[in-house]
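Re: the pair you flagged

First of the two:
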Amino acid sequence: MCCVPRETVPPYPHPSGARPPQIPRALVPRHVAVVMDGNGRWANARGLPRVEGHRAGEASLLDVVAGAIEIGVQHVSAYAFSTENWSRSPEEVRFLMGFNRDVLRRRRDLMDSWGVRVRWAGRRPRLWRSVINELETAERQTVENTTCTLTMCVNYGGRAEIADAAQAIAREVAAGRLKPERVNEKTVQKYLDEPDLPDVDLFLRSSGEQRISNFMLWQSAYAEMVFLDEPWPDVDRRHLWRAVETYARRDRRYGGAVDVPAAT
């Protein structure tokens, strides 16, 4: 008996009634990487503890995912906790571990109802077992969803991901299962955290900072960069849509070039 696809529901509309711009499908980025920066500064500017900024940022992530679905983005990768974030205060680290765990638990069913597939990229060592359990539960529950993929990057670093891939390749070479001269870009891709994750098309960062901070280094080789002035808790789907409009206007040549004769 053939399986019947499970029905999904559309995301809730934006409170303003805003709708996504009409952009040709071919000009919509397939994969958007998001650095959710400025939570602590947002909180401190309001006389609040840094953790309150992280709490406020949860709604922004949900709204951006909703906007991605509405405009046709197929992959969103969110930088939730980096390998460098362990250097923050023990209190903030404990909060972020528990917060990531609880967000996954609270929002898993909503993501599932939207048809979002949740995946995890990052290292296991040092990560709380309870966080890993919630990530893996979300992965199992949403594995058949195809509307959009949300990759939660928890205990993730771009250099760490490449280093781990290099170690895995070295083990294969040492075991005689792979010849060194056969190692190429496709080989490295095969050993990344999520080998089938497409390259990043649009790299989006909030809060005015203009750097990639060790996020998706391999996947962002040809990404278009858009930097927002707003801190992450002030970002919603409309910011994503404007970034997509910016992306759609850019000329992506991937190292190629075409001569344009001067007017005579």
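Second of the two:
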Amino acid sequence: MTSLRFVERLRDLTGDVDVVLSDIWGVVHNGLESFPEACEALHTFRQRGGTVILITNAPRPADSVQRQLRKLGVADETYDAIVSSGDLTRHFVADHPGQKIFWIGPERDSSIHRGLDATMVPLEQADYIICTGLFDDETESAEDYRDTLLKALARKLTLVCANPDIVVERGDRLIYCAGAVAELYRELGGEVIFYGKPHRPIYERAMALATERRGRPTELSRVLAIGDSVRTDLTGAHNFGIDLLFVTRGIHSEEFEGIEQLDPASVKELFGHPPRALMRELKW
């Protein structure tokens, strides 16, 4: 295994790339403000003939994600399409009509149920659980849900996780996501279905959207993923068979502070399977 260096520009990696699958939170914005140079980089790649699919573990439909991006100043021209774990979760609900749902998550995620035959009930009456996040991610952690999850386990309920992320940036803080609750339920012995990175269905959907936009399939060797999480972005890209540009300004920023080059041992310790390259923040 060779050393892993930082690169300065996205254009140094895209000579043989037709499709970019870019993470959103941590790459394009931090939940409070967008990153103009990252948006410009993706837009420029598109202007030069590339296709950009934003691939996100947001537990909301793509149109809701788009509205949030607009509020943060991310122009529609930055990308070709969005695929979210919320969309895939909606497909699960649609495939189970008439079943009752116990929902764990904040009110802002309610769009995940919009237009669906989804009946929300207390845990004791539910057929399965959907977790889009914590009720109050400013103050809670997964441990606050242990008693609820033990009751769900006693009823052998399946938990559908609409956001496999454990934590995400919000400004300069890290907050817990639905993945933290889902992992605790799995540790307790519960059955969990994950939608989103690093699981394969979200990548398959992203490539289907890329094929629609380009009018033809793209070889995986000509696809580059961009992300800031080892657990979701890097693992998902590796398992799907595509390269990843790892952005270090995100949730792992403290681990990379002051580092200019990683030796082989550090690469293996931090990543396991190394990304194609490192970049502090996305620039063209």
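The chain has two domains: 10-57+198-279, 87-194.

-B.
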